[in-house]
Specification:
Elements lengths: L7 H21 L3 E21 L12 E6 L2 E6 H8 L5 H12 L3 E18 L6 E2 L1 H16 L5
Parallel strand pairs: 1-3
Antiparallel strand pairs: 1-4, 2-3, 4-5
Length: 154
Amino acid sequence: MASPAFGQPMVEEALAEHLRGMTLSLQSSGHSWLWQVDEVLDTRITKLFLIMAASRAGAIRRGPTDILCAFGQQFVLTREQTKRFIDRTRGIQSRMEVLQELLHADLVLVADASLTVKQSSTLVTPSDQQPLTVAAAAAAAATAKAAADGSHQP
């Protein structure tokens, strides 16, 4: 049985951190990566939800806000609305008033999307600033290893 520590999020984080370290090491030695998306193979909407009383149009709400997650959606409330919403002395009436206010406010539709793409990358070396293909990088690494070992290839 696999350890939960090796579950998908932890493995992805470890691999991402390792890749980040390698990339930073290459950058510090003057190398750079060129990344290119060649083709989008598949797209999927994995999650769709609304954020009520939020705006991307630049409307600024004054003061602190709270986020209420309910019915699979998110609601942005002012502190005054939050106090009225959680006040049990007024019963359901207070909550319904707040929800009605939110229905007349701006909203943001959020879509989490997943893309499957075909991509390519190229390593640019500092010496000639020309793209280095994967095969050329492997050959250069083998030559450097052979030179470090004191041997040579015919």
